[in-house]
Amino acid sequence: MSILIKNVSKTFGSFQALKDINLEINTGELVALLGPSGSGKTSLLRIIAGLESADQGVIYFGENNITEISTKERNVGFVFQHYALFRHMTVFDNIAYGLKVRPRKTRPTKQEIEKKVNELLRLVKLEELKNRYPSQLSGGQKQRVALARALAVEPKVLLLDEPFGALDAKVRKDLRRWLRRLHDEFHITSVFVTHDQEEALDVADRIVVMNEGRIEQIGSPEEVYEHPNSPFVYDFLGNVNLFYGRLENGKLHQGESIFSVPEWKEENNKQAVGYVRPHDIQISKENQGEDSIMATVSHIHIVGPIVHLELKRQDSDEFLEAELPKDTFRSLSLQIKDQVYVKPNQLKVFIPEDYSI
Fold first, then answer.
1. Spatial distance between the Cα atoms of 307 and 13, rounded to a whole number of angstroms
2. d(CA 242, CA 253)
3. What is the pTM of this model?
4. Bridge partner list, 260
5. In this predicted structure, what is the pLDDT of residue 264?
6. Cα(53)–Cα(294) distance, rounded to whole angstroms?
7. Which member of 9, 123, 199, 262 has the lowest number of beta carbons within 10 Å of its beta carbon?
8. 139: closest CA among 113, 165, 121, 120?
9. Phi, psi of 299 (to 5 degrees)
10. d(CA 20, CA 210)
11. Are 29 and 23 in contact (CB under 8 A)?
């Protein structure tokens, strides 16, 4: 089931949560709505579900305009951040609930409900816990029950609001993999809200980056991470180093350092900012020329195969972050207080005035 969102806007009092949102989600796609608090992602999810109404705009499921249709008739599965399980019901009864409360004409038989719930229990690997109550489950187990309950009614669309936000890091990672496998098996059109960049990059087919009620960028995880189209997207999707300078004929001038940015060769005397990821920082003990910066190693932090370095620039009070493979770090024999030369690779330059409101 595809989803088409056209010109959707929403205000709460004087606050505009959504501003002219246009988005198309393909059948069977897993899409992440990613953004900081207040960006409008949860408001958009709730409007898709019918839990909120849009002030303007329309929403289609397939070719059907469902803008004025009730939540119950939209046939969506909704998974809340804090599970919303019925505390007085067992795991089995929680999953069966949506089937048991169907109108008599469409309600499955008791045997059909039992068969369906047992299939879902096997799918979420909770067969042995079906007679337990929510208070007897871990956070990860509760979330799997919530997902199974949402899938029990065979929804056309699955919506998840910060599905792993209340869980610890290890459980979140395990459940992310599990959700991806589950989605690949069911092929349900799914939309999930998150503010966790790693989660979106790890799970989604496409990411919709939102900010202040608008869509900043839509693309595959690789597209939005490697080719961000605005300073906000670049900054939001991971750590970044900033190089403030002036553009002149395809060069970014920063103090005595000059960086080549040929895509800006037509710009002259424009204030600009260069963005570069920590893993795109090249480090040498030898001067690399005019596009390198002298710095001092101020902190070294080794995590598995990656070494994280903090470097203090010698021409200012600013710090840079770099990430090196452990083999490269060892070959450089770096220690605290060592003087090095830093060269940014993959420098992406934006002109701030182009993004000012």
1. 48
2. 13
3. 0.84
4. 251
5. 86
6. 56
7. 262
8. 165
9. -155, 140
10. 12
11. no
Nearest one of 221, 252, 278, 222 to 350, comparing CA atoms: 252
281-284: strand order across its sheet: 281-284, 339-344, 293-303, 306-313, 319-325
Q: Encoding tokens for residue 99?
A: 């089937």
- Could you give the CA distance from residue 204 to residue 75 in angstroms, rounded to a whole number? 22
Would strands 15-25 and 3-12 be described as parallel, antiparallel, or unpaired? antiparallel
| 55 or 101: which leads in pLDDT | 55
Q: Which of these, 141, 347, 331, 99, lies nearest to 241 by C-alpha position?
A: 347
- How far is it, in rounded angstroms, from Cα 316 to Cα 151? 56
The tokens describing 67, both together, are 């803008």
Bridge partner residues of 211 (DSSP): 214
Residues 184-222: tens digit of each pLDDT: 877 889 999 998 888 899 889 999 999 999 999 999 999
* 355 three-state secondary structure: helix
* pLDDT of 356: 64
> Between helices 139-152 and 91-100, what is the axis angle to 10°?
20
Q: 47 and 3 in contact (C-beta within 8 Å)?
A: no
Listed residue (159, 184, 164) closest to 174, CA to CA: 164
d(CA 123, CA 186): 11
pLDDT in tens, 134-181: 999 988 888 888 888 888 888 889 999 887 766 677 777 777 887 788
What is the pLDDT averaged over residues 307-333? Answer: 91
